[in-house]
Amino acid sequence: MNNSDKMIIRNLKLPCYIGTKPEEQERTQVLVFNIEMDLDCRPAGQSDNLADSLDYAALSEAIAKLVVGRHFQLIEHLAEEVAKCCLSSNLVQFVKVAVTKSGSLAQADSVTIEINRCRSE
After folding, report:
1. What are the boundaries of each domain within the chain?
2. CA separation, residue 45 to residues 1, 40, 48, 71, 87 (Å)
3. Which residues contact 60 (CB under 8 A, 6 or more apart)?
4. Which residues are catalytic?
5. CA–CA gap between residue 31 and residue 17 (Å, rounded)
6. Using an 8 Å Cβ cutoff, are 91 and 54 in contact?
7. Is the whole-model pTM more than 0.85?
8. 6-118 has which fold?
9. What is the tens place of the pLDDT at every residue in 72-108?
């Protein structure tokens, strides 16, 4: 891509069942998602028409449907699923997904997994 256009969703908070321990699978935990996507914003910038852009509200809803109420063992797997969801739009060429889980380590505030995926993978 020859431009540096990005769409960023910051601090999307969604509850899900996450973890490998039995007690983690019994209660939801709120995860924080930061998603950065490379896409060409010029068509939407010129037309002022949502049809020429990535509908971030619809994408956020799709991610919520993917995450909320589901059971995942690893945040790595969850990050992969979110990346696939983002790349399902032909407008998105590259996505960076960061998933943060609080309370996993007594010595740290949180743990974050960050992955980078592009359409060609």
Report:
1. 6-118
2. 17, 9, 6, 39, 21
3. 9, 12
4. 101
5. 10
6. yes
7. yes
8. GTP Cyclohydrolase I, domain 2 (3.30.1130)
9. 999 999 999 999 999 999 999 999 999 999 988 888 8
